[in-house]
Amino acid sequence: MDRLPSGAVVIDTPGLRGVALAGSEDGLALAFSDVEELAAACRFADCAHVGEPGCAVQASIDAGDLSAARMESWRKLQRELAFQARRTDTRLRAEERARWKAITRSNRARGARL
Predict the structure, then answer these.
(1) By C-alpha distance, which of 15, 114, 35 is closest to 76?
(2) With contact defined as beta carbons under 8 Å apart, do 57 and 35 qualify?
(3) N or C terminus of the chain with fewer C-beta within 10 Å?
(4) What's the CA gap between 41 and 52, in Å, rounded?
(5) For residues 80 and 68, what is the distance between their CA atoms, to the nearest angstrom?
(6) What is the sign, positive or negative, of the torsion defined by CA atoms of 29, 34, 40, 42?
(7) What would the DSSP string read from start to end of 33-90?
(8) How far apart, in whole angstroms, are the C-alpha atoms of residue 106 and residue 98?
(9) Domains and CATH numbers, the chain
(10) What is the reported pLDDT for 44?
(11) CB within 8 A of 47, min separation 6: which ones?
(12) Dihedral of the CA atoms 11, 16, 18, 21 (nearest 10)?
């Protein structure tokens, strides 16, 4: 274990393939409080921060105040939290299964028309 000047700790764990988030979105909100603040200032509550008008997050990236890499890290962790929620929540798992069944049916129907 090595402590960095910034206060972070580097731990060498041979055999550990990955580290996942545990718990809820509280940790993500704390780690990315700057992104969360910007997201709250967006024009639309369901803003995906991709190209919507009035997106405070995109405006901050364009202005150089927020790095695109930091935003991508936030998105990646959001996806991981959603994946973990689907694995543990029966309702979310059923909704995901139904969504993929509909996609499969649509693709099969499209293939039959070709």
Answers:
(1) 35
(2) yes
(3) C
(4) 13
(5) 18
(6) negative
(7) HHHHHHHHTSSSTT--SSS-TT-HHHHHHHHTSS-HHHHHHHHHHHHHHHHHHHHH-H
(8) 12
(9) 26-113 (1.10.40.50)
(10) 93
(11) 39, 54, 55, 57
(12) -70
Tokens 């099969």, residue located: 108
Q: What does the pLDDT read at residue 22?
A: 62
Amino acid at 62: D
Tens of pLDDT along the chain (114 residues) come to 788 999 888 888 888 766 666 656 778 888 899 999 999 999 999 999 988 999 999 999 999 999 999 999 999 988 988 888 888 889 999 999 999 999 999 999 888 776
Rg, C-alpha atoms of the chain: 19
Q: Between the CA of residue 18 and those of 12, 15, 59, 74, 88, what are the distances in Å?
A: 12, 9, 33, 17, 19
Contacts for 89-95: CB closer than 8 Å, 24+ residues apart:
none
